[in-house]
Design brief:
Elements: H1 21-27, H2 37-50, E1 53-54, E2 88-93, H3 98-107, H4 109-118, E3 124-129, E4 136-139, E5 146-151
Parallel strand pairs: 3-5
Antiparallel strand pairs: 1-2, 2-4, 3-4
């Protein structure tokens, strides 16, 4: 007899918050399968530590629909983006600015975050920085250990 292992679903986010309307229309709740489980755990971890945030809000009338998984139907689609592989999110936090979270993750990686991320199987994260980046882009690509920064 084969034991069925339960698929991970976020505690703080519904699937509509992580995919576009097109993806949800096509896959519905099966859209959870399109994500790296570790990224979903990262989303919950960051939500627990930094408070309320939005990824996509299209399902309740908002304008964000491409901040999670990006399919070829998205105008922001890039074939090699971590968003395409279900390994990146753009998170907009309510009570704290993204640059403060990036600083916190980077400066406290060795003393705090590396241990928390390691518990979910992650030894490196990549954060996007730039003058106009007001959201927290986080991805879990294969990269050097620690909190890596790329500037756009």
């Amino acid at each position: 007899m084969q034991r069925k292992i339960k698929m991970y679903k976020c505690e703080y986010f519904g699937i509509k918050e992580l995919v576009s309307p097109n993806v949800y229309k096509s896959r519905g709740e099966k859209s959870w399968q399109l994500f790296d489980e570790r990224l979903l755990k990262v989303a919950d971890l960051l939500r627990e530590h930094f408070g309320q945030c939005v990824v996509n809000d299209w399902s309740w009338g908002g304008s964000f629909k491409n901040s999670g998984l990006r399919s070829r139907f998205s105008k922001w689609f890039k074939p090699f983006s971590q968003h395409t592989f279900g390994r990146a999110l753009d998170m907009k936090f309510t009570d704290i600015e993204a640059f403060k979270i990036r600083e916190n993750l980077r400066l406290n990686w060795d003393s705090k975050w590396s241990f928390l991320f390691k518990e979910i199987g992650i030894e490196s994260i990549t954060l996007e920085c730039g003058e106009k980046i007001t959201w927290l882009h986080i991805d879990i690509r294969n990269n050097s250990k620690g909190a890596n920064i790329f500037t756009v």
